[in-house]
Amino acid sequence: MRVLNKYDGAPAELMIALHAWRSAESIRRFRELFADRPLIVALSGTDINEYLERDPAATLRSLGYADRLVALQELACRRVPRRFRAKLRVLHQVRRLLGRARAMVLSSLSEGGANVISEAVAAGVPVLASRIDGSVGLLGRDYPGYFPVRGTSALARLLHRIETEPPFLARLRHATERRKRLFRPEREKAAWRKLIGEITQHVPVRTAQAATRRRARP
Predict the structure, then answer these.
(1) pLDDT recorded at residue 162
(2) How far is it, in rounded angstroms, from Cα 213 to Cα 207?
(3) I need a labelling partner for 93 at 20 to 30 A (CA). Which of 11, 73, 116, 212 fits?
(4) pLDDT less than 70: residues of the chain
(5) Residue 216 has what pLDDT?
(6) pLDDT for position 217
(7) The whole model's pTM is what?
(8) Which residue ranges make up each domain of the chain?
C-alpha cells in the first residue's frame, strides 16, 4: 500500500481517493490508465456541502469515475445526485478516543460527518451539536442534544441543563450509548474489508460491459 498526495501513474490494484474535488486529477489519471481496476472515492464534507455546487464539473466527474463512493454519515445521500446514489456506502469512522469529559460541543455551520462526533460517541461522551445534516446523520434524528445553527442561547440552555439536571445528562448518555456500536474500530475495519471485497467482485462485470461496448462500436 502507498499513500500519496498526488497519484504518480504507477500501477496499483485499486485506488482509494480521499476528496472527490481535491483528488479530481488523480482520479481522472488512474481511471484513464487503468479502466478495469477498482476505484473508491471517499467524499469529504467540502465535497458534499461546497464543491458539488462551486465546481460541479470536476466533482461530478470524480463521482462518475468511481466504482463506489464512501460517506461518513447517512444523510450525505441528500446532497449526492440521484444517479450516483447506488454507488454510495456509509462507513462510520473512528480515529482516536476522547479523554474523560462531561460533554462535547460541535457548533459547526456545515459538516460532512465530523470525526470528533465519532470519537465522542466511542468514548461515551455526550454531544451537543448544531442541527445540521452532518451531525444528524451520525447521531440520529431523535437525538436530544441538538440546538439550532447559530443558536447561542439555545446552546447555553443545554449546557445549563447538563450542569443542573442529572436526568437530562443521563438521557444524553443513554442516547450516545445507543449509537456507540456504529463507531467501533473493528466495525470500521470490517466495513472497509466488505467494501473492497464488493468492489473487486464488481470490476470483472464492469470490464466485460466495457469490452462489449468496444466491440459494438462501428
Answers:
(1) 92
(2) 10
(3) 11
(4) 92-100, 111-113, 202-218
(5) 46
(6) 46
(7) 0.56
(8) 1-91, 104-183
Query: Which residue shows C-alpha cell 481496476?
Result: 37
Altogether, the residues listed in the chain come to a count of 218
CA 149, CA 108: separation in Å to the nearest integer?
A: 8
- Smallest CA-to-CA distance from 48 within 73, 67, 68 is with 73
CATH (one of 3.40.640.10, 3.40.50.620, 3.40.50.2000, 3.20.20.140) for 104-183? 3.40.50.2000
Question: 145 with 128: CB under 8 angstroms?
Answer: yes
- Measured CA to CA in angstroms, residue 189 lies from 3, 37, 176 at distances of 18, 22, 21
State the burial class of residue 186 (Cβ atoms within 10 Å of its Cβ: 0-12, 13-18, 19+).
exposed
pLDDT value of residue 168:
95
